[in-house]
Amino acid sequence: MNHTSCSVPRTSSQPAVTRRQFLAGASAAAVGFTILDPALVRGADANAKLNLGLIGCGGRGKWITGLFAKHGGYNIAGVFDYFADRANEAGDQFKVPAANRYTGLHGYERLLAQPGLDAVAIISPPYFHPIQAAAAVAAGKHVYLAKPIAVDVPGCQTVADSGRQATAKNLCFLVDFQTRAHPAYQEVVKRVHAGQIGRLISLDAGYQCDLYFEGMDAEFRKSKRDAEARLRAWAIDRVLSGDVITEQNIHSLDVAAWFADAAPLKAYGTGGRARPFLGDCWDHYAVIFYFPSDVTVSFSSKQVGFGYDDIMCRAYGMNGTVETHYSGKVSLRTKDDAFNGDTRNLYEDGAVRNIAAFHEAIAKGDFANATVPPSVRSNLTTILGRTAAYANREVTWTEMMQKNEKLEFATSSLKG
């Protein structure tokens, strides 16, 4: 299994930044860490070096594991991917012994049983996040989970339960949203919630980007298009990715829900697919979300074409406006005050901050796991928008939750 995120789109005012440039600018490694027995890593020592396992060895999995290694507080102790070539690539990169490289559908269970393992970073296709995170918590491991947390309502509920169980077991469970870790985003959200722009009236949210995943489509065309091929091309597969509105557009919808500080009551949506890919994901959406207190969010996205890339959210209040851009400017304007921030290197900076926060929470014994509930809410918000768009009608939150639709991926033909 591999989770290969695309490069982050440039904002309208910023140049594109490649993954290679992000990696080149990574922070220097911390020093002076010692390895502790897993049973002692419960807030015992801020200098504890945690034994970390990687679940999902695709492009983003290897990239973020490099950031864990550079932090200095982690020892990369084991890797898992369904595909042996992926596991071996990561194993070679991080000098993981061959015995600690696991493959096959259930290889992550063998990783979780590896002696001395303290924590896992789950960067696999989103469909597998709930079951892998639940297994990790059951095995007594701290969990660092990529977004989205799930592809369907039952999966979101499973992750919510895993977060609660982690807290009860004195385990850390952190969901990696880069925007929520950035001081500029935190500042404008705090000001909005404090009423600085007045009563919130409406929001605009968008995720506009070029044509992604052409390589996955090309490889899928050459394959048997069986379950293994779908795993290789997971990002163009609706079930494995949750579709683009959940797998990628969640960045902007997460910020909208953060500003609104609530879950939407209902949504009306539409959309479709125009790109000539074999996968069944849509490539454009338009959704109106209705939040409490008569707040509306107008959302649109595209993953096709050329000439405009942005991940943004704009909040309009009675007395002012906030504008945010992923890897761009974050600003607040009222007649009496202003705030200007820059998130130019957010893709890496946010991950670096979250990796540090994960280690610090474990060292301090902070197991409140505050990132889980808003991540569940935002993930469900994307599913509400997807459900409304697929049906091309209004769908309420209550209807979506009661239906509790589960997406199914047949694994019977996969190697165990």
The domain count comes to 2
Using only C-alpha atoms, the radius of gyration works out to 21 Å
Given helix and strand content, the structural type is alpha/beta
For the biggest sheet, the summary is: 9 strands, mixed
CATH topology of the largest domain: Dihydrodipicolinate Reductase, domain 2
Shape verdict: globular
Structure description:
The chain is α/β, with parallel strands linked by helices and 416 residues long. The protein has two domains: 19-179 and 350-369, Rossmann fold (3-Layer(aba) Sandwich); 182-346 and 376-403, Dihydrodipicolinate Reductase, domain 2 (2-Layer Sandwich), CATH 3.30.360.10. 37% of the residues lie in helices and 23% in strands. It is built from 15 helices and 16 strands. It has helices at 19-24, 59-71, 84-93, 107-112, 129-138, 153-168, 183-193, 214-222, 227-232, 238-241, 244-247, 250-260, 346-364, 372-391, 397-403, and strands spanning 34-35, 48-55, 74-80, 101-102, 119-122, 142-146, 173-176, 200-209, 266-272, 284-291, 295-303, 310-317, 320-325, 329-334, 338-342, 394-396. The strands form two sheets. It has a nine-stranded mixed beta sheet with strand order 15-14-13-12-8-11-10-9-16. Strands 1, 2, 3, 4, 5, 6 and 7 form a seven-stranded parallel beta sheet that branches. α2 (59-71) packs across α13 (346-364), α5 (129-138) runs parallel beside α6 and α6 runs antiparallel to α14. The longest helix has 20 residues, at 372-391. The radius of gyration is 21 Å and the shape is globular. The relative contact order is 0.17.
